[in-house]
Specification:
Layout lengths: L1 H10 L1 H5 L8 H27 L10 H5 L5 H29 L1
Helix pairs in contact: 1-3
């Protein structure tokens, strides 16, 4: 959720500005948080479905990667997002583990 807020509110502000929305200010921030929860629920459902069908080898793939119609853009952006999410997790763990260890 932290990473999605970073992407929508800071890194990709220009992309977010092209969205035809009447929301602004605090309502936009709440919408970004809500969209993050919806995305995570959707991805969780996709993973559960793949596990139920025994499609374990496809877990790390996205649909656009199968079609190859949009080039490498989505794959490269998702890889960058994944690296950034890992960095956020590492920082959060580095900050919180010493607190809980005491």
């Amino acid at each position: 959720m932290i990473h999605d807020m970073y992407r929508h509110l800071w890194r990709d502000v220009d992309r977010a500005a092209t969205i035809n929305s009447t929301l602004a200010g605090p309502k936009w921030i709440v919408a970004v948080a809500e969209s993050s929860l919806i995305r995570m629920a959707s991805e969780s459902g996709r993973v559960v479905g793949m596990l139920e069908r025994g499609e374990i080898r496809y877990l790390r793939r996205r649909f656009d990667w199968f079609t190859k119609r949009v080039g490498d853009g989505p794959r490269n952006e998702e890889r960058m997002n994944s690296r950034q999410r890992i960095a956020v997790i590492i920082v959060l763990l580095a900050v919180t583990l010493p607190v809980f260890h005491k």
